[in-house]
Amino acid sequence: MARGQGHRDGPSILRYIRAAAHQHGVDRRVRYHRRVVRAAWSSSDARWTVEVENAESGELERLTCRFLYGNTGYYRYDEGYSPRFEGASDFGGRIVHPQHWPADLEWEDRSVVVIGSGATAVTLVPALAARASHVTMLQRSPSYVMSLPEHDGIADLLRHLLPERLAYPLVRWKNVVLTTFVYQLCRRAPRLMARLLKKGVASQLPADFDVETHFSPRYSPWDQRLCFVPDGDLFKALSSGRASVVTGQIERLTGDGVLLDSGATLDADIIVSATGLNMQMLGGMAITVDGRPSTSPSRWPTRASCCAVFPISPSRSVTPTRRGRSRRTSPPATSAGSSTTWTSAVPARAGPSHPIRRSRGSR
Ligand SMILES: Cc1cc2nc3c(=O)[nH]c(=O)nc-3n(C[C@H](O)[C@H](O)[C@H](O)COP(=O)(O)OP(=O)(O)OC[C@H]3O[C@@H](n4cnc5c(N)ncnc54)[C@H](O)[C@@H]3O)c2cc1C
To answer: Residues enclosing ligand 1, CB less than 6 A?
Structure first.
C-alpha cells in the first residue's frame, strides 16, 4: 500500500493483488476462467469429484480430491439484487445495477438517483456527484455513516521511524485493536455511540441539515453494518449541493423519475439501484453425497463463520491430542440407523494446530 493512503481504488487494489500473487508464485497455481459447477462425494471412494467448466472452451474438466474447500464467498456476483419497482418499464432513462455497470454509461450533466444507502451507495454518490448535474441518494431508512481519514498519519509515522518488518505488523495490530475497540464500544454503549456518530455527521454538514431524518437509524450501531466514508467525501458532496439525500418509500417509477409515497417526485435521467447482492452458498455448485443432492440448509450452520457438514472417511479422521499432536481416530460408535459423520476444516494429514470437529450426521 502506498505511503499514507488508508483507502485505495479498484485499479490499485487489482495491481497490488496481481503483484503480490506474482511475487509469491500464487498466480502460477491458479486455474483461471474456471467455474465449479458440481461436486460429488463418494463414500466408497472417500473422494470428491469436482466438475469444472472452462469458461473459454466450454469444456467440462474433472478433478478429484479428498478435501474440498469452498472459498467462494457468500454473494452471487453474476446477478445483483434488483427489487421490482412498479412502473420500471415507464421510466424513460436508464436503470443500472452497480454489479452490471455499463461501459458506455455517461452521467455528465445528468441527474442521477441512487437507490440505497449501504456501502455501495455511499461510495458511488460522491464519485458520481463530481460530474453529474445532481445526485440524489434515495434511502428507505437511514444508515450509520462514519468518516475515516484517507491518510493514516500513525502508519506514516511508524513506517518512518521503524523498519518495514516491524512497522507493518504494528500498523496491522493498531487497526485490529482500534476496530475491535470501536465495535465493542458500539455494542456496550449503543446510545452514547449513536449520539457520537450523529454528532460526527452533523459536524461535517451545514448547520440546517436534517441529520435526525437522514442519518439517525432506528437500530443501534453495528446491529447492521456501519458505512465508512474516506475523509467524509459523502458529506462534502452533500454540503456542496451537488448531492442530496431523500428518505422515503418508493411508490413507483414514472417516465421522468421516481414518485415517493409522500407524493414527492425526484427527476432522474439515470437510476442506480445500489440495492445489494443476492446470497449464494458454495458458488452455486450442485453438491451430491453418494448420488443424493445435498442442499439442506441444516447443513450450513453459520455463526462467526460458515461451515458445511459433509462426511469424510471416519477411519482417516484426525483428532488433535492435548499436546497439540494429531492422532488417527477410529470411527465413532454409532447406534443402528444413525449415521455419525466427521467433518474437518483440514486435510487428514494436517498439522498439529488444525481444528477438527465431530458432529452428528443430522445437523
Ligand atoms: C460492494 C461490497 C463492498 C464491500 N466492502 C467491504 C469493505 O469495505 N471492507 C471489507 O472488509 N469487506 C467489504 N466487503 C465484503 C468483502 O468483499 C467480503 O467479505 C470478502 O470478499 C469475502 O472474501 P471471500 O474470499 O470469502 O469471498 P470472495 O471475495 O467473494 O471470493 C470468492 C471467489 O470465489 C470465486 N467463485 C465463486 N463461486 C465459484 C465457482 N462456482 N467456481 C469457481 N470460482 C468461484 C469468485 O469468483 C471469487 O473469486 C464488501 C463486499 C461488497 C460486495
So the answer is: 35-36, 71-73, 75, 119-120, 277, 283-285
- Distance between CA 326 and CA 70 in Å, rounded? 24
Give the closest residue (by CA) to ligand 1 atom 20: 73
C-alpha distances (whole Å) from 214 to each of 48, 78, 244, 245, 339 are 51, 31, 10, 7, 54
**Per-residue pLDDT at 289:** 86
Q: Read off the C-alpha cell for 5.
A: 493512503
Query: How far apart are the C-alpha atoms of 3 and 15, rounded to whole Å?
Result: 16
Domains for the chain: give ranges and CATH numbers. Answer: 86-278 (3.50.50.60), 303-363 (no CATH)
What's the gap in Å between 14 CA and the centre of ligand 1? 14
**Residue 295 contacts residue 360 (beta carbons within 8 Å):** no
Q: State yes or no: pLDDT of 92 exceeds 70.
A: yes
- pLDDT tens profile 306-330: 555 555 444 443 333 334 343 333 3
Distance 71 CA to ligand 1 centre (A): 9
Q: State the closest ligand 1 atom to the C-alpha of 74, by its place in the atom list counted from 1.
A: 30
- Give, using CA atoms, the residue closest to atom 35 of ligand 1: 72
